[in-house]
Amino acid sequence: MNRPSIRFPRVALRTIGTVSIWRWSQWGCGAALLVALLVSARIVQHEANTSELQAHYLSDFAHDAGYTVENGPSHAIRFPATQGPYDVRMGYAELPAFTARLKADGFVVANQARDSARMLELADAGLFLPYDEKDQAGLVLRDTDGTMLFDTRYPRRAYASFDAVPPLVRDSLLFIEDKYLLAADQPERNPAIDWGRFGRALVDQAARLVTHRQHTPGGSTLATQIEKFRHSAGGRTATPPEKLRQIASASVRAYLDGPRTMPVRQQILVHYLNSVPLAARPGVGEVNGIGDGLAAWYGRDFNNVNRLLGEPVSAATLDEQALAFRQVLSLLIAQRAPSYFLQRDHAALAKLTDSYLRLLASGGVITPELRDAALATSLTMNAPTRKTVPVSYVERKAVLTLRTQLMEMLGLKTIYDLDRLDLDARTSLDDPVQQAVSERLAAVATKDGARAAGLVGFEMLKPADDPSKIAYSFTLYERRNGQNLVRVQTDSVNQPFDINSGARLNLGSTAKLRTLITYLQIVSDLHARYAALDAKQLRAIEPDPTDALTRWALDYLATTRDHSLPAMLEAAVQRKYSANPGQTFYTGGGAQSFTNFESSDNGQILTIQRAFQHSVNLVFVRLMRDIVRYEMIQTSGPPAKWLDDPAARKAYLTRFADGESRVYLKRFFTRYKGKTADEQLATLLRHTRRGPARIATELRMVVPNGSQPWFDAQMRAQLKGTKFQWLDDEDLAKYYNKYAVDKFNLNDRGYIAGVHPLELWLVAWLRVHPAATLAQAGQASKDVRLYTYRWLFRSRYHATQDRRIRRMVELRAYDAIGKSWRALGYPFARITPSYGAAIGASGDNPAALAKLIGLVESGGKQLPTHSIESLDFARGTPYETRFVHDAAATPRQLVTPQIMRVVREMLTTVVQGGTANRLAMGMTLPDGRTLPVYGKTGTGDQRFNVYGPGARLIESRKVNRCATFVFAIGDRYFGTITAWVHEPYAARYTFTSAMAVQLLKSMAPALQPVLDPRGKAS
Question: Does residue 739 share a domain with residue 715?
Fold first, then answer.
C-alpha cells in the first residue's frame, strides 16, 4: 500500500532538524539518567536482597570490636547508659553503683574488662555494645573450695540451641515476625532490617500524619526487637532515633563473626524465644521467654510441650499437639502487648490467635487438620505448677543468710532482684564441715543423739527431757591472712528465723565479757590520766565520793612503784566485791534485786577475776554500778553540779518532763488514732470509773460547746445502772455548769476525771484535728505537756526531783556504756538501763559475741570480718568485673593489746577450772591432736514478770532459756555455740551453759577438717 508523501518547506526542515537534534540530545541525557537510576535501583535491590556490601563493610568494622579482661580496675570500659530491662535485671547497668558500695565495704576491683578502641567508639556513638549475650543468668554461690551452694537461672526454662526448637514453633515465628530471617539463598543477609517491611512501616507512619486512623504495624525484625526489649529504656521504642539505634546495634552485632550470618540468624531466633517479655504474674514475678511463659500462664511443662510439637502431627496426638501449639502461638502473639493480652483481655488474645491459626494454614505453615483442632481448643490461664516439696530451712539457712548479706551489700531492695543478677560469688563457708555440723545439730534433737553427744547429765538434760524442742546454733570463724572468715554458720531452727544474728537473746553471763572489757578500758583511761603523777600529786586529787573507780586508781598509783599499764590492769581484776544478794539496787528508775546462780557464792567476797571464772552475778552487778557512777560523772559532772545548781536542776527536770510526757502522749495517741470523734469519746468514757463528776468533766472538756440536752443524754447513758441514774434535769444542769471547761485548769480536770490530763487534752484536740499525726500532736502539746508536770517543779517535791534528775543522768551514763559496747560490735542501738546489763539483761546475739571474742583473739585489732570472699559480675561480657577484699587494708586497733592480754588470761581460767572445765584438756580431735580452748559461758533465763501494787510479783513466766559458750580454739579459730528453747517449752528445762560446752566438745569429729593448723597462713 502506497503512503502519500508529505513535503515540508526548506525552512521548516531546518527547524525540525534543529529541534530534533536538541530533543535527541535531551533524550540521550534522560536515557543516561534512567540507566543510572535503573542500575542504582538494581544495586539497591541486590543489596537489599543480599546485604553483600553491608556484610563486608560491617564485618571489617566489627572485627575490632571486642574486649579483654586484665588485672585491676579498667579505664576503658563502658556500662549501659540506658536502663534497658535486660541490663538492669543482669546488673550491668548498676555496676557503677555496686562498685561504689563494695569499695566502701572493703572490696577492690581485682580484674575488669578493657574494651577495644572500636568497642569504645561504638559505645560513645550511642550503640548498644556488641557481644554474644546470655539468654540465662542468675546468682551462683560457692563455698571456699568452689563447691556449688546455690544457683538459679532466669529465665528458668530456655532452648539450649537452634536444633532444640521444634520446627513448628520456628516456622510459625518466622511467618509472623520475620519471614526471610533464615533465607538460605542470602548467606550474608543483615538480619537487622527487612527492607520491604521497613518501607511499608515508613509509608504507614507518613500516612498516620494525615489520618490518625491509619494502622501502623511495626517494621522491626527479630534482631531489632531483641535490642528493644533488652536494651532500650523500659523495653520500648520511644523515638525514631531509638529505632535507628536498635537497627545499627543489631547490624553490628550480626557481623561480629564475619560476613556470613546464618549461624547468627539462627541464634537470633533462639534468643528471641528465650527472652521475649511476657508480662508479670503474682507469685512468679517478671516472665521472660516462651518456656517460662508456658509455665506461668498455662501451667505447662516446657519439655513436654516441645516433645509434643517436635513429633509429626498424627491422629493419636492431634488434640494434645493442637492445644500445645495454640498456647505457644498465643504467647508469640501476646508479646505485642503482653500486659494487655495476658493480664487484662484474654478474649482478645484468643480471637487474635484464631486469626493467626487461619493465616498459618493458608500460608502452608500448618496443616488444615492442626488448624481445625487448634481452633476447637480454648485458652485457659492456669496457675503456675508448683511442686509441694517440704522446705527445709535448716539446710538453706546459711544460703539464705548469705543472700540477705549480699542484698544489703549491693543496696538491693529484694532477694528477687539479687537472684536475677549475673553474679558468681565465692563465700568463705566450708560446705562439707557446714553439712557435718548441721547433721550433728539435727542428731542431738533426738534422745539417742543427745545421749551419744554426752548432753544428758548434771546441769544438762534430764533423762526424761525432750531434746526435740531445743534449737541449736553454731558459728565458727577463722582468722587468716589478716581477715576473719566465716567457716560455719548454721542452726537447727526449721524456720526463716536466724538464731545467730536475727535474735535478741538473754545470753546470761556472756555479758560479763563485755562488762569486763568496758571496765578495763576505764582503768586504762584512768592510767593515762594519772600514771604520770607522783604520790603527792595523786593524794591532792579529791574525786567525788560516789566515784569508786577513780578513788581506787588514785590509791593504787599512790601506793605502788610500778605505774605500768599491764601492772595496773592485773591489779584491777584483783579488786574485790561482795557477792551478797541481800541488797536492793536502785537503777533504771526502780528498785531491783539480783541473785547468784550458785547459792554457795552468796556469803563470799570475791575478786573480779574469780567472779568471772565462776560466773558470780552479784560481783558484776556491783561492778556495773561503779561503771555507771563513773560514767555519770564523766558525762554530766559530779552530783553537786546537777543537784545543787538551780538552773541545772530546772534544765534536767524540764528534759525529764518532756521525755516522759512524750511517752504518755504516744501511748494515748495509739489508743485513739483511726477512730471517729464519737468513737474516741466512747473509748475515753469506757476507761473512766462511772461517777457524775468524772463523766461531766470529760464531756465538758471534750465537747465544751455541747448543748444541755446532748449533755443530759450522755450523762444518763453513762450512769445507767448506777446509783446516780435517777439524776433529774435540775441536777444535770448543775453538773453542766459546775464542770464547764473554764471552771478548772487541765491538771484539776484530770484529777477530777481520774485520768491523765494529757489524755483529756488529746481527745479534745483530736476532735478539732482529726487527721493529725503524732508529730503534730507532739508539737501542739509542747506547753500542755510541761504544764501537766508543774507539780514536779515545786520545792516540796525536792526528793522526788532528785530521783528524777539522777535517773536522767544515769540514762546518759548507760548511753555512754552502750556506745562503747557498740564500738566493739554490740548489735543493738541501746542497752537496758539496769545494773542487770552486766549479767545479760540487755540481750545479745551469738554472731556478735563471736566477733567480740575474735577481737580478743586478734589482740584488739578490728580485722575485716566477712563471709563473701569474691564477687564475679558479668563474666564473659564487656562488663566483666571481679571484686575481692582489700588485703592491704590496715586494721584499726580498737582495744589496746594489754587489755586483751588480760581478758584472754581470764577467759582461759574459765576453761581451766571454771564454768567451762569440760574442755580443760582442750579440743581433742580424732587424729589425736589437741587444741587449747578458752571462752566464756552464759546461761540465760528470760522471764516475763507481772507486778501488782507495792511491787508485788503476780506472775512470772519463763519466756526463753539459753545456754551459750563463746570460745576460741587454737590460735585462730573462734565462734559461739548456743542451745535455745522458747515458751511454752522453756519452763520444762533446767540445763545450763555446761550443755553448750559439752556439745562443742562432741563436735570434734565434724570440725577436724577445718581445724587444721598446718600449712595455712595466719
Answer: yes
